[in-house]
Write a structure and sequence with these properties.
2 copies of one chain form a homodimer.
Chain A: E1 3-7, E2 9-13, E3 25-34, H1 37-43, E4 57-64, E5 77-80, E6 83-84, H2 90-93, E7 104-105, E8 118-122, E9 126-128, H3 135-138, H4 141-153, E10 161-165, H5 169-178, E11 184-188, H6 192-200, E12 204-206, E13 217-222, H7 227-236, E14 237-245, E15 253-255, H8 257-262, E16 266-269, H9 275-285, E17 293-298, H10 302-309, E18 316-320
Parallel strand pairs in A: 10-11, 10-13, 11-12, 13-14, 14-16, 17-18
Antiparallel strand pairs in A: 1-2, 3-4, 3-8, 3-18, 4-5, 5-9, 6-7
Helix pairs in contact in A: 4-5, 4-9
Chain lengths: ~325, ~325
């Protein structure tokens, strides 16, 4: 099958072995898959140990099932939870497969991803898509789930003053999911055209973070991926407030713990979330997410898609794995 | 009056001006005051901007009151909350004077402390001591309040596995306050004689932290003040667990946020606590704290007391400001 494969570098290959049927997995024909910053970090070698097909934001159609009892799934439009747990540990039993110590992660840890014609996923991870969710919205289920994870970890209430640092793909999803909480939301971005997208959604933005008052926010969400932003977050959060680290950072940064201790700040790491939350969000609020897609490429031009995704003038880049259906 | 005064360096002075009566403050004759690591950091110049008399762990007797309506307090054994708030801001109104942006802090921020014959404290900070609390226990109210602050910030339950890193003065107080929670407590120390004090209280300790299982603790409390311990805490805490930063750190340290984000760790800065909690703890549990006092010096030998407090073979050093009463 056609696929993008990473081994030291990302290559397009027309003849990668297609996944074989397994008794505990489902094979999906990929329709489209979005490029995430984690995918870009994989191609830069920042995700240690990963060799294989990246890609974890996707939807497709069930192509093959373990046995006839699953035949009703054939052709269904689906996606899959990216964290594949062992099913036995305390985390899996608590519906927290995303923290299973033996997990594989689609396109990130020991499991091939979605920049290919087909993918094989464990049965429990399969997520059928309601008809009310458009294809372009389905591509954002994984990042929306990650955004909603913040609200699983902490309550965000209407009287909270929230500062979101970042205006990229993930920050846009975070902002969209924060809006219905009714919190007082301010987004500090760096790109006029990206903050304009947020303004269109009625979200308050600024390009001049220094103009915001210090120690005035109950919660600061760092979703820019910039290590300097952590220092800025410490300046903006109020005593006893919280800083949410929502980005994956390629490198460490220096950290002065004194203000964290003196002001009793909570720092909260936040990663993947439940797909069911994201689907509920999409069904309830029906945001138009097409405006976040900057460019589309066929799978055969996948390398060009990755080059484009790294340009500052693009938001989400989508790779279409079947040209049309 | 006799006092220890810090200005560039700590000096003993026999003729420091005694505090004058104010309409909103109470003057206390200091009986005794303990030396805390923060005091030592002040004498090393690590607490920017402080010039004055250090010392914030003390008890004494009310010597002078604003007017006759307070006469009943004269001679009462008391201590004082160290954070003196403005009384008007949202933090003060929420009983969180310790986060008032305009606060003074006894012996630490813009207010003279307790290594002297007399101290003047704002009326609302005065804390009368119940007769059931022995003098030596009264000296530990401030660090016990700081230790109990952890439990104000987060619930510590009987099924929690808690690792406490550190065996010094503050760590001993943290361990004592954790014990009644019924949590599974393990203390990782560096000094056999200090961990022995904990063992005498029935607390499990180890000198070989590497022997403890990785990612096995729900909560790791860093109370050693060592920046390396933060990395060790990250290794020991389970996914979705919490690291409490209980020490004041003189310097910054490098910080790799990746495991914090991937494992969704909560990092919680924790500082001062409510004296009422510490008094309740002392009344309920009546721990013997005399064993934590290594040496006592008269105020006239205060410089020697500070030298002794910095030796590795001492725990709490106490300065007696009135020889006997």
């Amino acid at each position: 099958m056609k696929a993008l494969h990473f081994h030291d570098q990302l290559r397009y290959t027309p003849d990668f072995p297609a996944p074989e049927n397994r008794s505990d997995e489902i094979i999906i024909q990929i329709a489209s898959a979005g490029i995430c910053n984690t995918d870009i970090e994989i191609t830069r070698g920042y995700v240690p140990g990963f060799n294989g097909i990246p890609g974890h934001e996707f939807y497709g159609y069930v192509a093959s099932v373990p046995d006839a009892s699953y035949d009703c799934l054939i052709g269904k439009r689906v996606t899959a939870e990216i964290n594949c747990g062992c099913g036995k540990c305390s985390f899996c039993k608590a519906d927290l497969e995303r923290h299973c110590p033996d997990r594989t992660v689609i396109g990130i840890v020991n499991r091939n991803g979605a920049f290919a014609e087909y993918i094989s996923v464990p049965l429990p991870t399969l997520v059928p898509l309601p008809d009310t969710i458009p294809d372009n919205s389905a591509l954002f289920i994984e990042p929306l789930a990650a955004a909603l994870e913040i609200q699983e970890q902490m309550a965000i209430l209407p009287d909270h003053r929230v500062l979101l640092i970042g205006d990229g793909k993930l920050a846009q999803c975070v902002a969209l999911t924060l809006k219905p909480t009714g919190c007082s939301l301010q987004v500090a971005g760096r790109h006029k055209w990206k903050t304009a997208l947020l303004q269109q959604q009625g979200i308050s933005t600024t390009l001049d973070q220094t103009s915001l008052p210090d120690h005035a926010f109950d919660i600061v969400i760092e979703a820019s991926g910039s290590s300097a932003a952590f220092g800025e977050a410490l300046t903006k959060v109020r005593p006893r407030g919280a800083i949410v680290l929502k980005s994956t950072y390629a490198k460490g940064f220096s950290f002065n713990p004194a203000p964290v201790v003196v002001n009793e700040i909570t720092i909260l790491g936040s990663r993947c979330g439940r797909f069911s939350s994201a689907i509920g969000f999409l069904e309830n609020h029906r945001p138009d997410l097409s405006c976040l897609i900057s460019k589309r490429f066929p799978l055969t031009d996948g390398i060009m898609a990755f080059e484009t995704a790294q340009r500052k003038d693009t938001m989400k880049v989508v790779i279409d794995c079947i040209p049309e259906r």
